[in-house]
Amino acid sequence: MRAAELAEEFPVVDLDADALAAARLLAEHRLPGLVVTEASGCPHTVLPASDVVQFLVPPYVRDDPSLAGVLSESMADRAADKLGGRTVRELLPDEPRELPRVDADDTIVEVAATMARLRCPLVAVMQDRTLLGVVSASRLLEHALTPR
Questions:
Q1: Residue 30 to residue 138: CA distance in whole angstroms
Q2: What whole-number distance in Å separates Cα of residue 100 and Cα of residue 120?
Q3: What is the 3-state secondary structure (H, E, C) of the chain?
Q4: HSE-CB of 120 using CA atoms within 13 angstroms
Q5: What are the pLDDT digits (tens) for 85-108?
Q6: Integer Cα distance of 94 and 21 in angstroms
Q7: Per-residue pLDDT tens for 52-61?
Q8: What Å distances lie between residue 8 and 4, 18, 22, 73, 137, CA to CA?
Q9: pTM for the whole structure
Q10: Interior angle at CA 13, CA 10 and CA 18, nearest 5
Q11: Is the dihedral of CA 87, 32, 37, 100 positive or negative?
């Protein structure tokens, strides 16, 4: 099976899209991440949902997780405040990650190898500079675990 056959339509967001809207998209559809595109529409990177969660956790709690127990649950209520007025670009790490991408004719093993190497739950399936779709880790596992 080739990557193009596994690829599915998947929501994408622009680098300058509203961060809160992107987070809501992740939450409402229970997505593992989003493909982030440049203004030209070309894929730029993947924003894993875990990066959005990390953005919501104060740095001092990330440094010392034992402090999480002393914070009130109202911190979760302030998530919208923290994301409001920000862009997707601001949620991305300072050092850009390599775009998890595969070619349309890559095999399922090549797709899995890319996911594993980049530790990313999504890979963009490209034909030249055109995004054909996305293969998620769950889609890949579904295919790999289905008896033939």
A1: 12
A2: 7
A3: CEHHHHCECCCEEECCCEHHHHHHHHHHHCCCEEEEECCCCCEEEEEEHHHHHHHHCCHHHHHCHHHHHHCCCHHHHCHHHHHCCCEHHHHCCCCCCCCCEEECCCEHHHHHHHHHHHCCCEEEEEECCEEEEEEEHHHHHHHHHCCC
A4: 24
A5: 999 999 998 887 888 999 999 999
A6: 21
A7: 888 887 777 7
A8: 8, 24, 19, 36, 12
A9: 0.81
A10: 140
A11: positive
> Quick one: pLDDT at residue 62?
74
- Look up residue 122 and give its amino acid: L
pLDDT in tens, 130-140: 899 999 999 99
Q: Which two tokens stand for residue 123?
A: 């890979």
**Tokens for 22?**
């992107």
Counted residue by residue, the chain has a size of: 148
